[in-house]
Amino acid sequence: MTGVTQLDLRLAPMAGVTNAPFRLIARECGAGLLTSEEIDAKALVEDNAKTRALALHLPEEKPLAMQLLGADPDVLAEAARRLEADGADRIDLNMGCPVAKIVAKGQGAALMRDPLGTAMIFRTMRKAIQVPFTIKIRGGWDDRTLNAVEIARIAESEGVDGITVHPRTRSQQFTGQAPWDVIRTVVDAVRIPVVGNGDVASHDDARAMTEATGCAAVMIGRAALGRPWIFAGSDVAREDRARIIRRHVQLIEDLLPARLALTQVAKHLAWYSTGLPGAARMRPALFHARDAEEALSIFWSVW
Ligand SMILES: Cc1cc2nc3c(=O)[nH]c(=O)nc-3n(C[C@H](O)[C@H](O)[C@H](O)COP(=O)(O)O)c2cc1C
User: Fold this and answer.
1) Are 29 and 166 in a shared domain?
2) Mutate which of 166, 203, 263 to test ligand 1's pocket (most atoms within 8 Å of Cβ)?
3) Is the CB of residue 94 below 6 angstroms from any atom belonging to ligand 1?
4) Which end of the chain is more exposed for a tag (fewer CB within 10 A), N or C?
5) Which letter does DSSP use for residue 71 in this model?
6) Which of 87, 29, 85, 79 is closest to 58 using CA atoms?
7) Is the C-beta atom of 136 inside 6 A of ligand 1?
């Protein structure tokens, strides 16, 4: 060995993006544990058809965490039970979603503001399932309430098995550099594994985050959009990237309902075209394509 430590790189959950096809592609490129996009616990328990489709996953994705969004402990526990019965290897609780209509319901990042209520959620969910139960938190709600450490300690004492930290506060949204020192303070405060997340765009960044924070693994979100080969340890040749793109489009067509598939194809091809000459001019046509085949031929024209 050359002393280079093996990095545990994971795909971050992203609503509208990290569905089964994209997760599978990330895995094939080398991603470790995968996580579903956020799944509304109440809609799942009510057997909503669209939510059921969102929860679709494949045996090849294992190990796979399914992420829940909610605020009612009993509903979250029931949703967790169902996902476990359906084969989830872990259940993750979303404590970071900043969307106004979500936090207005006390869900996502709003849980950071309610340590007592959150403790009850942890306890109820932990009791409901056998598989590991993890949470994904922010640095806090805003700069005056940086309470990631408080939440992490409560989580540990309630039997939560791991914590992912995206250190921005809810009010920071995506502005500024993610303050990695917050990840370090959580790592130092608990004994359960802490996964670092935020602004990692390369293996060098992931290594730097690991060294700076002592995190057990690194989660990559936006930098994987149009670049799932970021998970591979080495450069990926152009023809291999083309093969990955073709396979991704095929998986979308095979696995997603028709009403979603074409938008997903266009969206991902737009990301895959980032930085290519002519990409900006090509994109509107991509979103007007009548089918995946047409979208692909528009895409290859700038590839
Ligand atoms: C389009 C989009 C959707 C997201 N959806 C979720 C989600 O469903 N659940 C979640 O915990 N985080 C979600 N996030 C946050 C990411 O998981 C991650 O914490 C954030 O993007 C910071 O990591 P990055 O700098 O590597 O992108 C989302 C982010 C983006 C850009």
Assistant:
1) yes
2) 166
3) yes
4) N
5) S
6) 87
7) yes
Query: Per-residue pLDDT tens for 45-98?
Result: 999 999 999 999 999 999 999 999 999 999 999 999 999 999 999 999 999 999
Residue 163 and residue 187: Cα distance in Å, rounded? 9
136 and 183 co-located in one domain: yes
Range of the domain at 126: 9-231
Q: Are residues 174 and 245 in the same domain?
A: no
- How many Cβ atoms from other residues are within 10 Å of residue 295's Cβ? 22
pTM of this structure? 0.96
Beta-carbon contacts of residue 268 (< 8 Å; ≥ 6 apart): 22, 226, 248, 249, 252
Same domain membership, residue 227 and residue 195: yes
Tens of pLDDT, residue by residue over 171-226, are 887 777 789 999 999 999 999 999 999 999 999 999 999 999 999 999 999 999 99
In a domain, 160, yes or no: yes
